[in-house]
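Long-time lurker, first post. I've been practising inverse folding by hand and with some scripts of my own, and I keep getting stuck on stretches where the structure tokens seem ambiguous. Below is the full token string for one chain I'm working on. Before anyone asks, I'm not after the true native sequence, just a reasonable design that respects the backbone. If someone could post their per-position residues I'd love to compare against what I wrote down in my notebook.
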């Protein structure tokens, strides 16, 4: 957990710096769903295993079109080899469930982004689609369940590690409802350098890495005003 703790501490230390940076900051919350793909699911995702996710974020307005965001998201994922429809996974009666904590930093590109205020000083609502990509750390605690008691001795595997890098990438849209209130919707894949989201690696497919997905809605408050932005960003 040392790397994860250091990244969380860095985000905490970065918060007052962002808030002092000409008030170009949004703070928000996220609520949605999580799913995964790995050694117990051969399809892209098993919809029946979709679970909840929630979190918080800070978004810094670098420019009209470029934003930087810090995410802290907790998701719940699960899977079972019985869900495999392609027959590519050997049915052994294995399943798992796990909490998944992500701390990440992403960049957002808003191709149609524009200034929040017009030349007359009036606030302008906008709908801003965007693409995002970045990196982060995850921590997982998978619990594997088996039907054959002889399989129980296989877990946890000897090289199990709880933390790994992740690489968020996806799409979203941000909608200004009021001068300081925005909502949004986003979803994205999180490829990892990790094969233990489901607790299974050497006894599954050690050559393939696991990935997961978060998708849902956001609500944010913008710490800025016309006075602080000079017809701001």
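-- Answer (accepted) --
I ran through it position by position. Result:
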């Amino acid at each position: 957990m040392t790397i994860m703790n250091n990244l969380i501490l860095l985000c905490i230390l970065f918060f007052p710096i962002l808030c002092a940076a000409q008030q170009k900051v949004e703070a928000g919350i996220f609520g949605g769903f999580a799913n995964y793909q790995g050694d117990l699911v051969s399809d892209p995702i098993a919809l029946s295993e979709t679970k909840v996710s929630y979190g918080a974020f800070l978004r810094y307005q670098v420019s009209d079109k470029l934003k930087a965001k810090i995410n802290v998201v907790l998701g719940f994922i699960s899977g079972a080899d019985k869900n495999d429809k392609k027959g590519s996974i050997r049915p052994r009666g294995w399943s798992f469930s796990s909490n998944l904590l992500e701390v990440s930093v992403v960049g957002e590109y808003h191709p149609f982004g524009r200034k929040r205020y017009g030349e007359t000083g009036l606030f302008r609502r906008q709908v801003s689609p965007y693409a995002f990509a970045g990196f982060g750390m995850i921590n997982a605690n998978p619990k594997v369940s088996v039907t054959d008691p002889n399989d129980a001795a296989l877990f946890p595997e000897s090289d199990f590690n709880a933390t790994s890098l992740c690489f968020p990438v996806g799409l979203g849209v941000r909608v200004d409802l009021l001068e300081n209130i925005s909502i949004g919707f986003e979803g994205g894949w999180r490829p990892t350098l990790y094969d233990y989201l489901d607790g299974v690696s050497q006894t599954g497919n050690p050559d393939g890495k696991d990935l997961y997905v978060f998708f849902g809605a956001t609500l944010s408050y913008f710490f800025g005003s016309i006075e602080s932005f000079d017809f701001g960003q």
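A couple of notes from the structure itself: Helices lie at 2-20, 226-229. The chain has two helices and ten strands. Happy to go over any region you disagree with.
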